[in-house]
TrEMBL record:
Keyword annotations of the record: DNA replication
Family designation: Belongs to the DNA polymerase delta/II small subunit family.
GO molecular function: DNA binding; DNA-directed DNA polymerase activity
Protein name: DNA polymerase alpha/delta/epsilon subunit B domain-containing protein
Highest rank taxon of the organism: Eukaryota
Annotated signal peptide: none
Record bears the keyword Phosphoprotein: no
InterPro entries, per database record: DNA_pol_a/d/e_bsu (IPR007185), DNA_pol_D_N (IPR040663), DNA_pol_delta/II_ssu (IPR024826)
Keyword Zinc found: no
Start and end residues of each DNA polymerase alpha/delta/epsilon subunit B domain: 209-434
Species this chain originates from: Pichia membranifaciens NRRL Y-2026
UniProt-listed GO biological process terms: DNA replication, removal of RNA primer; DNA strand elongation involved in DNA replication; RNA-templated DNA biosynthetic process
Ranges where the record places region Disordered: 1-23
Amino acid sequence: MTAVNGEFRRTPKTSSVPDTSFANPATERTYASQFNALYSFRSGELKSRVMKMAMPKWSGVDVNGTKPKFVPKVLDVPFLEPVFIIGTTLADMKYKPDVLKEVELNVQGHFKELDNLTNGSGTIHNKMDDLRKSSYSDPKTDKLWLEDESGRILLTGDHLSDKILVTGLVIGVLGMEIESGIFHVVDIVYPEAAPQRSILAHDNAKGKVALCSGLNFNASSDVVKFELLQNWLMGELGDDRAKEVSELMVVGNSVNIVPVKQNIKSEKDKYSDDFVSQYDEEAAKYVDNYFHDLLHSIPVSILPGAHDIVEAGLPKQPIHKSLFHKSSNRKNFKRLTDPAYYDINGLRCLVSSGENINDILKYIIPNVAVTEDHIAESISTDSRLRVIEDSLLWQVIAPTAPDTLWCYPFEGRDPFTLVETPHVYIVGNQPNFETSLIELKRKNGDIIPVRVIAVPEFSESNSCVLLDLETLKCELVRFSC
């Protein structure tokens, strides 16, 4: 236990063995594999689970006097006959990055065409160019394909408009081929939810976890709000809620290194990145000292994020201990992967810094506003809740990896495919605090509840989220400077 104003706060019950679900040690990596191995594992794992949900739902359906049958290969779909098929989605979008095309243009020396491909029109900078940085979509030309080892078929139908569908999902679709190579969809099913661990009563003790993301500290940061958070957690602001906090979890982006423009580039170097991140020693030292002070009062767990001093691809490995010279010497300081599973007080928590969700948003925010589309309307309010919930329905938390989200080419496994369902799914670095309790279905009729939490960036919101480990209720704590 640790003391808060003379009183003791509870020590959380955590696993003594670190979870290795997203571990990827540098000494064991090989980049000889192709990404198709990752897709093959995902498809193999989820196809059978889709079938478990599709058969009972569609076996009794009657379409014009005909019961739909299952067709194993998308290229064997009969014309104008009701069937259902299972495959992996592929979103074909006008502004989605095309690495092979960019490399081809660079090698051939077509630098003007390369600039047009990567920077929009290249001649007139307008709002459309800015939108393309955060969206791949052009509603007039977007296409969604379903593919398997035999080939692919184009999906159409009004039923698709009220669904969030991106690259890399394994789904089942009911409908019929209305034209050659075009499949009209009337219903969709997702994979069966993976099993969930039982919560043992003797482990599920009282206590709360403070969830904080997006500290984004750098040399120009106002340290006052960071000190307020620190003082509150240490029980120095007279708030009784601080006494109940068992642990602080920092969900990505502790620092925000300002990129420096790379001005000198050769003609043959058009394909390299325009910006190079610079290591900021002062920011790293401040964060280390900040956490070290907190560790005298409360355990701290930290995930890396897109802004942190860590590799770019997912899953991100723990921030190197050399960057936490002081904090790493404390036993109550844990460096986690991103994403990460974390066991605390009998709960199985899945935590992400939010890169996976932010990339999914690029598929569903259109470059041209579609006001009649209620998905566009909900996204325009900066709500991410439905996207986070749907990723649990898909049973893949990072479906767009490796298509548009960097990741390691795993062989024989896809760590982003859920083989177990967590009790809590926490996503950091989101615009607003949001939470819900989603219910996932199993074939046997069991209902699996999952608490979903979107944690706002502290640097923008001056707030953190308290999760009650016993009741799974959440509340927002704001700090006024």
